[in-house]
Amino acid sequence: MARVLRIGGAQLGPIQKADSRQAVVARMLALLDQAKEAGCDLVVYPELALTTFFPRWYAEDIAEMDDYFEREMPNDAVKPLFDRAKDYGMGFCLGYAELVEEGGETHRFNTCILVDRDGKIAGKYRKVHLPGHADYDTSLRWQHLEKRYFEPGDLGFPVWRSMDANLGMCICNDRRWPETYRVMGLQEVEVVMLGYNTPVENQHTPDEAPALRMFHNQMSMQAGAYQNGTWVVGVAKCGVEDGHDLMAGSVIVSPDGEIVAEAKTREDELIVADCDLDKCTLNKTTIFNFAAHRRPEHYRMIIERTGSEPPAAE
Amino acid sequence: MARVLRIGGAQLGPIQKADSRQAVVARMLALLDQAKEAGCDLVVYPELALTTFFPRWYAEDIAEMDDYFEREMPNDAVKPLFDRAKDYGMGFCLGYAELVEEGGETHRFNTCILVDRDGKIAGKYRKVHLPGHADYDTSLRWQHLEKRYFEPGDLGFPVWRSMDANLGMCICNDRRWPETYRVMGLQEVEVVMLGYNTPVENQHTPDEAPALRMFHNQMSMQAGAYQNGTWVVGVAKCGVEDGHDLMAGSVIVSPDGEIVAEAKTREDELIVADCDLDKCTLNKTTIFNFAAHRRPEHYRMIIERTGSEPPAAE
Q1: pTM of whole model > 0.95?
Q2: Residue of B308, B309, B314 for testing the chain A interface, max A β-carbons within 10 Å
Q3: Is residue A302 a part of any domain in this protein?
Q4: Residue A156 contacts by C-beta under 8 Å, 6 or more apart in sequence?
């Protein structure tokens, strides 16, 4: 019997600073209704899905940004999404900024959660690879202050058995790092769910074509899917947000690395694919049979070095 | 001043069982002449470039295959290649089956070497990821006995400072594993050189389209290039060899992951690109600035597990 999860990628158009969480959740509910109509089992929303991508704005005191964070989940604003998904018997994956108080200290993470068909939070992931910088950079036309507002994730890259599947999550920049997929691949992940907020323009190389940026975005997910025999669902927040243009291109990628569904717009849009989990088996048991072929004794540098070091001189 | 290496990828058409090393080296010399004419600094030849891909044939006693191995390098058959490359002041990378006697034991490796402009062997790599199987498999229409005839490489993935560049090598199946590129990326590799012998047909899935197989081949190299900010030169032995069809598609890939040169034939063919090593800098210092962004504390599973393990039950 084929094990098929019908997955919806719920791409979101821009969220402006002035937009309330209630307005955003209403849009997410509309996409959830579409997903129900389409027979989806599981819906994936973007990174920081409830607000604008606030790390582009600088605040001297980071607590000034705390309004963009969620202190509990679900909270009043998000509860309608939990309730309706549970009514529909659908799971979902949701990205948001998380603020936790622990032992008198405040911690902030770029987080996503997996909510199962019963409305229970089955898994939580906190973004490990934070791009950008921590301090105001006068050389840039806009800021990318994830390293200022968030701590690096402290939960690793777990894989959960939920909805009769091995499900993993990562967030945005994580998708460009092969380590992300590999750690989940070593846990037999079958679906990697991720959201992203990625500028159309690379301000380090303003002449880089948007098509090349899209190629990098999608190739990273395609390679991760192929090399680990897993589905990958990558969902954008896109369009012109607070005057900043974010790329779209949400995709569902098969364990063959092929794009089987792709967003056509830069707005709220649902993409859908039937993800046959048994399609993960071929790569996992033949060319990428890890137990038969991997040689970790030669990979030690991957954990023994953080930065790179050049070879000895000639 | 731009640091440009003009690199030639010397794709080889098939080598039949009956072909002598002398005949093969004559073809390699013709490609070397073309490379000289084209102004190349460095030429990359395929995996096991001196013989047919013998691991497709079974021998009960593996020593029966020793005629396919080289016991010294250069030997008489290969010396003309060393001599002419030195005359031309060109470096080259050459794959071959290596047999070494050490302490009364015989060891066999799938090896490649880097020869510098002065004809000196500057680096040696032994293939780490050996695909296939060690015993005769009656379920297969042809055998893939690399695990029978070779030991896994014991030299890791070194990077050498040679020809004013950081040069690394891997072989065939290695190119599909992100660990391969990452270990070299952590040594600031600027050019990864590799050769391959890859069947057009995947006999585990005979209905897999050749175009999909080519996509996997090239995407693996493109992702490795992009994610580590390195040039990748991938060179095929191709065409119908001993009745077995090998894919072509030799490429030179930029640090952007883009294919800048690609073979058009399934025969002996030289592809050429100017590889500006300074193009490696952007990715290495921004999006893939390893020191700033990597989090090895979350990668430990990559070396602590060889095979995969499923997550705990729901």
Answers
A1: yes
A2: B308
A3: no
A4: A128, A183, B298
